Amino acid sequence: MSWPAFWKKRNWQSRLLWPLSQLVCWEASRRLKQFEVAKSPQSKKAKQTVIVVGNVVVGGSGKTPFILWLVERFKRQGISVGILSRGYGANNAHWPKLVCAQTSVMEVGDEPYMLAKQTGCPVAVSPRRAEALALLNERYDCDVVISDDGLQHYGLARDIEIVLIDAERGFGNGWCLPAGPLREPMQRIAKVDFTVWNGLDENQAIPELDVEQKNAYAMQLQPIGFRQVGNPQKRLSIKEFVAQYPEVIAIAGIGNPQRFFNSLERLGLTVEAKAFADHYAYQKQDFDQLLGSGSKSLKQDLSALTVKPLLMTEKDAVKCQTFAQDESHWWYLQIAPHCSDELFNQILNQVNA
């Protein structure tokens, strides 16, 4: 989600909300302490290693691409992986649910659908992740289970906690909701097993914080090409795409839309940007309105279609494929997450332990 300005810098608005943020901090700390003391008696201890990949701020931080990277590394070691998700934005009255070939993205949400599609791993979805884990264990025998988000979901026992941090936005003004973007106090960082900074260059040092960071590493999201939304087999390299389409209309319904728009500009594209809410459920009319309005409309004439195509993220694309088969000018950016071998080896050591 896009952050309001007062989440980025402390001003009169954030200060006005500061008393409420203190209540949020207190409640988050209380719940964490209760979990640590009671060892979450309401949750059933899993028979395999459970890894929670989450964040401490509202909005996207790169959890999904990190999970894709982590799953791939586990698979190379012959380790079977299952994935849990809350299914945010899903339209489903019955939980838990497994993602299968017949499942629609609207039933389970965009992130579980994409994770199942890209990894080939079993994915179980439920707002109560312990229920999703139980269903996963009924059908599969996984060595490792990864929970997509859920750092603050204490109904699920866990063995390893990994926090993703957006290197561009960081922690904003450092205050809890509603005065700032934090879901819980910064001290939570000192209690997790790993911190991963999304967006740092390989030669950049890990930023220092006022709290301890255990096992801090960087992740880069490397653009590798563009694929047609309705026909993903159709692919253009970065160089080919930029040469053919120097100006684009770009949309993003992700946690930090500006990160996507900035990445396109760094590739050399001129971007006309439109941000949607995170997990936005796209309809065909959204694009009819977007592409059919304004003096630079894609629908003015045929030549315009070749000049300014529509670009989106892969997370957006999975929700648009059902009505994009005939749209040869709709593309998504394919990325490849990259982290160090040392990070994976450290995680693997904890799994084996």
UniProtKB/TrEMBL annotation:
One Pfam match: LpxK
One term of GO molecular function: lipid-A 4'-kinase activity
GO CC aspect terms: plasma membrane
Xref: SUPFAM superfamilies: P-loop containing nucleoside triphosphate hydrolases
Enzyme class: transferase
Catalytic activity: a lipid A disaccharide + ATP = a lipid IVA + ADP + H(+)
Biological or metabolic pathway of the protein: Glycolipid biosynthesis; lipid IV(A) biosynthesis; lipid IV(A) from (3R)-3-hydroxytetradecanoyl-[acyl-carrier-protein] and UDP-N-acetyl-alpha-D-glucosamine: step 6/6
UniProt: ATP binding residues: 57-64
Source superkingdom: Bacteria
Keyword RNA-binding: no
E.C. number(s) listed in UniProt: 2.7.1.130
Keyword Transmembrane helix: no
Keywords: ATP-binding, Kinase, Lipid A biosynthesis, Lipid biosynthesis, Lipid metabolism, Nucleotide-binding, Transferase
GO biological process, one term: lipopolysaccharide core region biosynthetic process
Transmembrane segments: none
Cited function: Transfers the gamma-phosphate of ATP to the 4'-position of a tetraacyldisaccharide 1-phosphate intermediate (termed DS-1-P) to form tetraacyldisaccharide 1,4'-bis-phosphate (lipid IVA).
Family: Belongs to the LpxK family.
Protein name as annotated: Tetraacyldisaccharide 4'-kinase
Organism: Thiomicrorhabdus sediminis
Lineage per the UniProt record: Bacteria, Pseudomonadati, Pseudomonadota, Gammaproteobacteria, Thiotrichales
